[in-house]
Write a structure and sequence with these properties.
- By secondary structure, this protein is of the alpha+beta class.
- The protein is built from 23 helices and 22 strands.
- The chain has a six-stranded mixed sheet. The chain has a four-stranded antiparallel sheet with strand order 1-3-7-5. A four-stranded antiparallel sheet has the order 6-4-9-10, with helices on one face.
- Helix 2 packs parallel to helix 9, helix 9 packs antiparallel against helix 10 and helix 11 packs antiparallel against helix 12.
Length: about 800
């Protein structure tokens, strides 16, 4: 397909580039269109160096224009006739230098090929890119097209400035020749004067045209800067905020760097063009010179746009964080933290030339210690960006009297007090300089690790709701969180910690816990006080974070596989299990024990639902949860042990669900089995344990009636006393809330039995009995493992 035909079939954005390319009269688009076949067949590149060939091509071009004019006459197209005559007249000017015309046409053809190449590459990228959203792709494509168009405009401007300089040199040469010849022939003088006047007029028109094109170019640049600074950069900063609290958003800056650098290069070239105009005016000027009149305004506008771009290009790529913190933006005094800044305008010649300094907001009471200055360089970035990576910073609290608590008298807790860390540098390049400053997102500074949980809650709330990156008084008037936004944030916590977020059913159960039964939770709001009441057990965040920590430390594999249902209340548990086959069980988090997980099952011998007391990190740190499930046994009345856990809800055989996690040893060979046997306790109304019992047929849990959510708060009817005496209680160390190993060696053996020799525990003797006092710090009646 012919080149011109291919161009006309491109998408609208690329046709816009084509329109921009021909937005001048060096080669009119009408001529390119009507003579496209002939133009593309000629060797214009050779004609740029071959005067004879260029002359022939010019003559043929003029003849073709005559032929086209005749067609328009026959078709009575008056406007086209007029345009063709005008174009022919312009081309006739090149008869003295046909190579220049050949060079111009060759340049246009090459630019057309670049547009086609970009379009083809973009089409290939479209086919390969299947993960990005359609709107995002469209926006990026639009920006890419605008950047490509801007690049073409600058190249055309460069070509126009060169032509202007050549015209001025031509005039200067003829003027100097005229002055040297000093002919006495008045008629010849008049003729020479007319020629010089014609050249001056042509030069004046060319200057006006360039100045007009410069204004158009700056209009395009201004539009691009608005798009980059007020949309793309703001969107990136919001994505970074969300990524700091667990969202899986893309925060890569490489594409943004490409755009910012492209616009900056164009503006620096514009400064060079303006400097060239100054040189030309210095060599030659005249009354009403348009350059003298318009150039100062162009200079001011260019400088202003470049300053805006550069000031916005300095960002914090990696927010301040401690190596062992819960997340970024929570810092502790006297503990090292790191942060990374990046300038999105990348000029290789500035490598190691710009120095960045760190400081704290002046109205706070902390000093920054450590390596406080770093040079922006490309060595510390995997993608080759220009970064300053601060890895050894420390905050130290000032002595009392060195400064106030803040700019406001409003009393805030330590974990609600927000701070900013500033980064400053001086940008200098090609005689242009501007002071740059950026700052971190608001950080919380603590002095004790016990404050970390509450501090992280503040960071979650602030970055979930606030888009003002400098609002250090956010908690002076804390807004509530809409449930959809709040639910998304909760899911991010699990997603970032375990690679698996919360599904709709789990989030609905959490909403039910917070708001009760509602037809639609989307209109509900969560207040800051309801989310985090300091660091008390009544806080929703303390309960939720306790579960999150437990899952991350001990249950990540099981959670990631979807084996833990997790957020299920007891009424829902009852409805799920009551119609299931006997031996079906599910795993859920405790509603009253912080950081607890339990399992409930349908009893094998009769269709009742039983629940075990929650396991906490104390238990799970000694025996993996999948081994507890694997070897769990109940001693029935006949003293026959059996495992009541057969099918993971809804109907997955236990070994199919958990088999991949089992250790090599099985059955009685397992070192864990002797420590997870549980005896069934028969409870009567007169027994002291009655207050801790529940009716499992009604789906009620056996857990303590303490905490915010009162898992055992529902009143139930207790079963009639059984006609049997209580068995001697044999404590289960795994079900105790304060279990500790008797000896270090035993604990090591339980966790890593393969690391010990065969004679560590003689095969003919059982594992040593564990002393009751080593595992239980509460009275025996508070520790039953199974509840009827």
């Amino acid at each position: 397909m012919a080149q011109w035909e291919s161009l006309l079939k491109l998408p609208a954005s690329y046709r816009l580039q084509l329109d921009d390319l021909y937005d001048r009269d060096f080669l009119p688009m009408d001529v390119r269109h009507h003579l496209s076949a002939w133009i593309e067949k000629q060797d214009w590149q050779r004609a740029t160096q071959d005067h004879a060939l260029a002359s022939v091509l010019l003559q043929v071009l003029l003849e073709n224009l005559d032929i086209q004019h005749s067609r328009f006459v026959q078709e009575e197209l008056f406007l086209q006739q007029h345009n063709i005559r005008r174009y022919k007249h312009k081309f006739q000017i090149h008869q003295d230098d046909p190579c220049k015309l050949a060079s111009t046409i060759h340049w246009y053809l090459e630019k057309e090929k670049e547009i086609l190449k970009d379009a083809t590459l973009d089409e290939q990228v479209q086919r390969l890119t299947v993960t990005q959203e359609t709107m995002e792709i469209s926006c990026q494509q639009d920006l890419e097209c605008k950047m490509s168009s801007l690049k073409n405009e600058v190249q055309c401007m460069e070509h126009a400035v060169i032509c202007l300089e050549e015209q001025q040199d031509e005039f200067d040469f003829k003027y100097q020749t005229h002055m040297l010849e000093a002919t006495a022939d008045e008629a010849l003088k008049q003729e020479q004067f007319k020629t010089l006047q014609m050249l001056v007029n042509k030069l004046n028109e060319c200057r006006k045209s360039i100045l007009m094109d410069m204004n158009k170019l700056l209009d395009r640049v201004e539009g691009l800067i608005h798009c980059l600074v007020d949309k793309e950069l703001i969107d990136w900063k919001r994505r970074q905020q969300k990524s700091c609290i667990g969202a899986p958003d893309n925060v890569c800056l490489d594409q943004m760097e490409k755009w910012f650098t492209g616009v900056a290069v164009c503006l620096f070239q514009m400064l060079e063009f303006l400097k060239k105009l100054d040189e030309l005016v210095g060599k030659m000027t005249y009354p009403n010179d348009p350059v003298k009149a318009q150039k100062p305004a162009l200079q001011t506008r260019t400088n202003s746009l470049l300053q805006t771009l550069l000031k916005s290009s300095f960002v914090v790529e990696t927010q301040p964080s401690m190596p062992q913190g819960k997340g970024p933006l929570v810092l502790r005094t006297n503990v090292q933290f790191s942060a990374k800044t990046r300038i999105l305008v990348k000029f290789p010649e500035l490598n190691h030339s710009l120095t960045v300094a760190v400081s704290m907001d002046r109205y706070r009471r902390f000093n920054v210690l450590g390596t406080r200055t770093k040079a922006l360089n490309m060595a510390e970035s995997h993608s080759g960006g220009m970064v300053a990576d601060f890895r050894h910073l420390t905050l130290r609290e000032q002595k009392s009297g060195s400064g106030g608590k803040g700019v406001s008298d409003i009393s805030l807790s330590v974990t609600e007090e927000l701070h900013l860390i500033y980064f400053d540098t001086l940008f200098e390049l090609k005689g242009f300089s501007v002071q740059l400053q950026t700052c971190s997102l608001p950080v919380v500074i603590i002095s004790n690790s016990s404050q970390q949980q509450s501090a992280w809650a503040s960071i979650l709330w602030c970055n979930m709701l606030s888009q003002d990156h400098k609002d250090v008084m956010f908690f002076a008037n804390t807004p509530a969180a809409p449930w959809p936004q709040f639910a998304e944030m909760l899911s991010w916590q699990f997603l970032s910690a375990t690679k698996r977020g919360l599904d709709g059913a789990q989030l609905e159960m959490i909403a039910h816990r917070l708001f009760g039964k509602q037809e639609n939770y989307d209109t509900c709001n969560v207040t800051w006080s309801k989310f985090s009441k300091g660091n008390t057990p009544e806080s929703f965040w303390v309960w939720f974070d306790g579960i999150l920590v437990m899952v991350k430390m001990y249950l990540e594999d099981l959670w990631r596989e979807g084996l833990i249902m997790g957020f299920v209340n007891k009424s829902k548990e009852k409805s799920l299990l009551k119609r299931k086959q006997r031996g079906t069980f599910l795993l859920r988090f405790s509603e009253s024990v912080i950081g607890g997980i339990t399992f409930s099952w349908v009893e094998i011998r009769n269709p009742k639902i039983k629940t075990v007391q929650p396991f906490t990190k104390v238990d799970l740190s000694q025996i993996p949860f999948h081994e507890i499930i694997r070897n769990y046994q109940i001693l029935e009345a006949e003293n026959v042990p059996e495992n009541p856990l057969l099918y993971l809800y809804p109907n997955i055989p236990k070994d199919d669900a958990f088999g991949k996690f089992y250790t090599e040893k099985t059955g009685d060979d397992s070192p864990y089995i002797k420590y997870i046997k549980t005896k069934l306790m028969f409870v009567s109304k007169e027994n002291a344990l009655e207050a801790r019992s529940s009716d499992m047929e009604q789906g009620a849990g056996p857990e303590p009636q303490t905490g915010l959510y009162g898992e055992g708060a529902d009143q139930v009817d207790y079963p009639e006393p059984l006609e049997s005496t209580l068995e001697t209680y044999s404590p289960d160390p795994m079900l105790s809330s304060s279990a500790e190993p008797q000896t270090d060696e035993l604990l090591l053996y339980l966790n890593n039995p393969n690391n010990f020799s065969a004679d560590f525990l003689p095969s003919d003797s059982p594992l040593p009995d564990l002393n009751l006092s080593s595992f239980i710090s509460t009275p025996i009646q508070a520790c039953g493992g199974i509840y009827l």
